[in-house]
Structures are given as structure tokens and as C-alpha cells.
Amino acid sequence: MARMQRLWTNLFGGWFQLSRRFPAVLLDEMATTIAAGERHHLGEIRFAVESRLAPLAVLDGLDAAARARQVFAQLRVWDTELNSGVLFYVLMAEHRIEIIADRGIAAKVAAEEWDAICARMRECYARGEWREGSLAGIAAANVLLERHFPGDGKANPDELADRPVLL
Questions:
Q1: Where is the TPM domain (predicted)?
Q2: CA 94 to CA 83: how far, in whole Å?
Q3: Where are the domains of the chain?
Q4: C-alpha–C-alpha distance, residues 154 and 145, integer Å
Q5: Structure pTM?
Q6: Contact (Cβ atoms closer than 8 angstroms) between residue 101 and residue 83
Q7: Domain 3-166 has what CATH class?
Q8: What tens-digit pLDDT sequence spans the chain (167 residues)?
Q9: 3-state SS assignment for residue 80
């Protein structure tokens, strides 16, 4: 997407619907789904939704992938004992979804598997199915993590907050 088009999208692209698309009841449901999944694997999932990027950031060339890496650091997703953090980053204005996995997870789960989750979520979001897309993405991540990073009865302290964050 060209920089000026991205600027326009971030200024006027429906970003103001953040609380309608992600109401408190959905955030609670997402947190419950994350917590339930984390009981069966050693991963730690964080979910962040940002309505738009600042205009100057867009003009400086910041894109969703780079912003997701910033949020990964900001939310300290990297700060888990087993390097097992996974960040879902949704940029509403640009209709972008990024999943960033810490090195412990990235060593076991192929990027294509995360891309498939993003594609499914994007399809749901395009139909206005914000709840379904978010919960399906989390559920799919839980399945991947359980397969590649199983708990196997090991103690798994909850190292990251389960409730999604709205930026």
C-alpha cells in the first residue's frame, strides 16, 4: 500500500470503531480462551489491537509488521522463561494482522502455520465477524502450541496477561 494511501487509511479508515468491534465482553471471552489454552501448552499468548498508526509514523514508513515488533517489545512478550511468547497484533485501519512468535516457539512452528491463522482471521474480519475471527485465531494458536510446545503436566506459570490490550 503506498504511503499516502496508508496515511489516508490511518486518518479516516474506520479506526473509530475499535470499542464496537472489540467490546469488553469480547475481550473477556478472548482472555478466557487464551487462559484455557495455556493450561495445555507452554506458550504465552498476548493479543493487541490498535485502531490506527499515528500520521507521522506512517509518513516515516512505519508499517504493521514493524509496529507489531514494537508492541512485542512494549508488552514484554519476549520476557518468558522458555521464550514462548506469541503476539497477535491487529491494525484495524489497514486491515492487517501480524503474529510474532518468540524464538522458542519460532524454532518449532513454521511461519506458514501462523500465516494460515492470519488468513482465516482476515476472512472473518472482512465479513464483520470480529468475535469469530479473534476466537478462531486464538483457538488455532492454542492447537499449534499444544502440538509443538505441549505442557505435558509441567508447571506453567501465567507469565503474561491474558486479557487483550487495546492500544
A1: 30-141
A2: 29
A3: 3-166
A4: 14
A5: 0.92
A6: no
A7: alpha beta
A8: 687 787 777 777 666 788 899 999 999 999 999 999 999 999 999 999 999 988 888 888 899 999 999 999 999 999 998 899 999 999 998 999 999 999 999 999 999 999 999 999 999 999 999 999 999 999 999 999 999 999 887 777 899 999 999 99
A9: coil
Question: What's the chain's length in residues?
Answer: 167
Task: Enter the C-alpha cell of residue 142.
Answer: 492454542
Contacts 24+ apart (CB under 8 A), 148-151: 148/105, 148/108, 148/109, 149/41, 149/42, 149/43, 149/82, 149/84, 149/104, 149/105, 149/108, 149/109, 150/40, 150/41, 150/42, 151/39, 151/40, 151/41, 151/42
> The cell 498508526 sits on which residue?
53
